[in-house]
Write a structure and sequence with these properties.
The structure is a single chain. The chain has a single domain, classed as Growth Hormone, Chain: A (Up-down Bundle). The chain is built from 17 helices and no strands. Helix 2 packs across helix 3. The radius of gyration is 21 Å and the shape is globular. The chain starts with a helix and ends in a 9-residue tail after the last helix.
Amino acid sequence: MPVDTALDQSRAELARFAERHWRYNFAVAAIDAGWFSLAMSFASTATILPAFVERLGAPNVVIGAMPAINTVGFALPTLFVAGYVERLPRKLPYILLVGLFERLSLLALAAVAFLLAPRSYGLALAGALLSFAAVSIFGGAITPAWMDMFGKVMPLRYRGRQMAASSALGAAMGMAGALISGYYLRSYAFPTRYALCFVTGFGASMLSFLFLALMREPAAPSAGPHHALGAYLRRLPAVLRANHSFAWYLAAKCIGTLGSMGYGFYTVFALRGLGAAEWQVSRFTMMLLAGQTIASLFLGYVGDRVGHKRVLVAGMASVAIANLIALGARRPEHVYAAFLVVSISLAAGIVSDLNLAVEFAPEGERPTYIALAMAPIAPVAIAAPLLGGLLADLVSYRAVFALAAVAGTLAALTLATRVRDPRYAHRRDAENAEPHLSF
């Protein structure tokens, strides 16, 4: 049988498998995401972790680096695992192995709070940052494999709604987590209050692991021959040169990362600048997750109907609006509104960011496109919070929010005017239509 014919037959079989099992995989993936989101609500980079390291005496630069640790930890491993992941006929065994280490890193964070924080704030701060970095690194190493599996088992017309359902269920469960973490923060002394948050998060993460193991995934043909890591990395610039829209999409993401540095300071600004009580941190989490729940359900439907590019434009615009709200905040209650608006951006990213990258990717190259969608933002993710921390120390938190608002606006404009939506570009190409920019 000719190679092309065999590949076409294999793709048809995979498509039939996805159609037969999409309801089951839809439900299992959503429940997995729900439990994992509950777990991460107890170690939120926007609320719980900044408050924890602030109590350990972390300076603004370190607090501002928390989103950077998360972003860089997710981004950099993707380049090193994507080539390997593409050759795996099934991704789930790899996902489960790495996912177990990701969850054990949450347990290590709990151990830091239980064992180190009562003895040495300096050691506890270092241990907390290392444990959180491990969570991010293992999560990043999973992402290309998970998205490739997701693209294989979930038909295109349901991907946005599946991500939305996962996000909404996760946010709803995260709100329950915020109530529990609020109880811990009000009822227990430091550092026990945070230790209880982290160990509860680990327990929830293990429940998510059980549902992750239930995913149904067929074997698929390997993408191609093995390439040494150096040779594989040297191939990547050619991907960007061949797809200008994808390159502009990455540029918009980099600018948007600069815009997102603001929300890493919302909690600390409320605590230090507006006199918020520590227990209000859990209410910030509630507002963030409530907004994400509502927004993700709507944006998932929009993404499936009209394309994920438009969802991301709305998300980047919400970054600018949230920072403008924070810029004008005069009471802790105003920060609630900033978290509510920034939740739209988080929901848009969850629903549509990697879904758009998957749509850009040719069959068999999804892990590479996922890696490219994540890795280039790492330098910006490192520089942005450092810049934000220095700006907060030398000028003010409001200066950080002003710069972030400008960056969010530029990101939205770049994505809206320079990126062709791949879904509609493919349709026009198939119909031999003249190419033009999609707005």
